[in-house]
Amino acid sequence: MPAISFEFFPPKTDEQRAQLDATVAALKPLNPDYVSVTFGAGGSTLSYTPETVRRLREDHGLDAVPHLSCIGGTRAEILSLLDLYRDLGCRRIVALRGDMPSGMAAFGELRYASELVELIRRETGDRFEIEVACYPEMHPQAEDAFADLKHFVAKVRAGADGAITQYFFNADAYFRFVDEVRRAGVDVPIVPGIMPITNYSQLRRFSELCGAEIPRWISKRLVAMGDDLAAIREFGADVVAELCRRLLAGGAPGLHFYTLNRARATLALLDRLALSRSNVQPLRRRA
Q1: Contact present, 20 and 11 (Cβ < 8 Å)
Q2: Is the dihedral of CA 10, 56, 98, 147 positive or negative?
Q3: How many whole angstroms separate alpha carbon 49 and alpha carbon 183?
Q4: 217-219-223 Cα angle (round to 5)
Q5: Using CA atoms in the order 16, 18, 23, 25, what is the torsion angle rounded to 10 degrees?
Q6: For residue 91, what are the CA distances in angstroms to 6, 81, 84, 85, 192?
Q7: Which helix (H) or strand (E) holds 161?
Q8: Which 3 state secondary structure label does DSSP give 53?
Q9: What distances in angstroms separate CA 10 from CA 66, 67, 82, 130, one per listed residue?
Q10: Which candidate, 13, 15, 123, places its Cα nearest to that of 68?
Q11: Per-residue pLDDT tens digits for 207-265
């Protein structure tokens, strides 16, 4: 059976914390393999991310996994965070390059995710299982698809145990990417990132930033629905559920849902996929 995981962003206000608590309460019965917490570039969530990881682990009993970005940070800051996550009992890290915050002139001491993975492995050994990002439709800042694949392979060679993809809506892009990775000699699990569709303008904005392609037939139908949010939610759930079915049938090892700290859309997808607590199993890593 496939593993599932959920991604949250760290709340900054009491209202956002209450929203996250409600979302966690709704999703926790689905027995996720883990939940991840994003990290702002340049340390903009330097305190929010660890605190959210702590609350999810201690208050909600979830295997909360921190994202760790290297852009704008120093080695000392990164090692301090790793010590903190070790003390919290974390066994997994999502290691990312991150994006340069506006107004920041320097990258920091590390420029690439592969350097971050190498640092984590060198300083902590096998303490952490390391996940990295990958882009079936190519990273928006990559020179070309071949360079993008080369960078991903470098992250795995540096010590990554698995990968989570950027979201996409074209299953063929995922399968082709996995085939290319396997031909390059990389056999780590590659889990598709899944973005529920609930708001077209928001989805279009996110997709422009991260380089995800919205197929023309999907965008045309969403535009035609205008402000009918109920119709958009139903259509989006049907489209993304079918994508998930195809991915799982084709051998994807699990699904990682970008929840945006809301439960409704993710629950609608899992309901369509008939993934319940009884048939969701933890992802088994290769030895």
Answers
A1: yes
A2: negative
A3: 36
A4: 120
A5: 160
A6: 16, 13, 12, 8, 21
A7: none
A8: helix
A9: 10, 11, 18, 20
A10: 123
A11: 998 889 999 999 999 999 999 999 999 999 999 999 999 999 999 999 999 999 999 99
Token pair of 36 as six digits: 């991840």
By CB neighbour count within 10 A (0-12 exposed, 13-18 middle, 19+ buried), where does 6 fall?
buried
Domain 3-273 sits in CATH 3.40.640.10: no
Residues annotated as catalytic are 7
Locate 128 and state its tokens: 């952490």
**Residue 91: which residues within 8 A CB-CB, separation 6 or more?**
63, 127, 128, 129
Q: 225-228, long-range: CB within 8 Å, 24+ apart, which pairs?
A: 225/200
Distance CA 227, CA 242 (A): 23
Identify the CA nearest to 52 among candidates 67, 41, 70: 67
Per-residue pLDDT tens over the stretch 160-201:
999 999 999 999 999 999 999 999 999 999 999 999 999 999
Dist CA 151 CA 157 (whole Å): 10
Q: What's this model's pTM, rounded to 2 decimal places?
A: 0.91
229 vs 225: CA distance, rounded Å: 8
Q: What is the pLDDT of residues 108-139, one digit of tens each?
A: 678 899 999 999 999 999 999 999 999 999 88
Q: Mutual orientation of helices 145-157 and 171-183 as an angle, nearest 10°? A: 60
Amino acid at 26: A
DSSP character string of 80-133: HHHHHHHHTT--EEEEE---PPTT-----S--SHHHHHHHHHHHHTTSSEEEEE
Which residue shows structure tokens 């079918």? 242
| pLDDT band for position 101 (cuts 50, 70, 90) | low
Domain map (residue ranges) of the chain: 3-273
